Amino acid sequence: MALSIQTLPEDERRKVADWAASCAERVLGLFEAEKPGDDRPRQAIARARAYAKGELDTAGEIRRRFGGGSTRRDASPAALAAARSAGQASAVCHMGAHALGAAAYAVKAAGLAAPDAPDREETEIAWQVAQLTPAARAALRTLPPIGQDRSGPLGPGLLASGRMGQIIARLQAAIG
């Protein structure tokens, strides 16, 4: 069975997992302020970082990811986007393209949290791109442009449509 180009080789997934965790962690406070007793997003970020360090294996992380349940929906849109960012970061073990999902949800969360700051999303994208290591940037550059490959999260679906698709397109342009 051929893997999707969006999967990325395991060594590259590990390189982008830490960056995805940093993107998610930057907005995590938006969720925790509303749901202080729900530590699932924080745990997802910790797992992404442990995966990046080689402390967790791919198969085990995939099993854990699908066993955690979804985040409660009774939170603000910004808090939910922050939680989804953490979920996407934990999914990098499965498919590297989820790193862009983590970053995009973080951008969305930051923008929703500051509706009176029109440049907030661009500021977040600039911060995220500045955090990339050369190796992580190189790995992300191998991903297909949003919407052009059907075999992963960058294909048709939630990440490729509407606001998320626009944010990921901007991220990919900024990454180069």
What does this structure look like?
The chain is mainly alpha-helical. The protein has one domain (10-175). It has helices at residues 10-34, 40-52, 58-67, 77-90, 98-113, 120-131, 134-141, 162-175.
Task: Give a nutshell description of this structure.
This protein is mainly α.
What's the helix and strand layout?
Elements: H1 10-34, H2 40-52, H3 58-67, H4 77-90, H5 98-113, H6 120-131, H7 134-141, H8 162-175
Structural features:
176 residues; globular; mainly alpha; 0% strand; single chain
Radius of gyration: 15 Å
Tally of alpha and pi helices? 8
- pLDDT averaged residue by residue: 90
Order of helices and strands: HHHHHHHH
Termini separation = 30 Å
* SS strand fraction: under 5%
Number of strands: 0
Estimate nothing, just give the exact number of structural domains. 1
- Give the helix proportion (percent range): 55-70%
Largest sheet: none
* Structural shape: globular
Unreliable stretches covering 5 or more consecutive residues: none
The SS-based structural class is mainly alpha
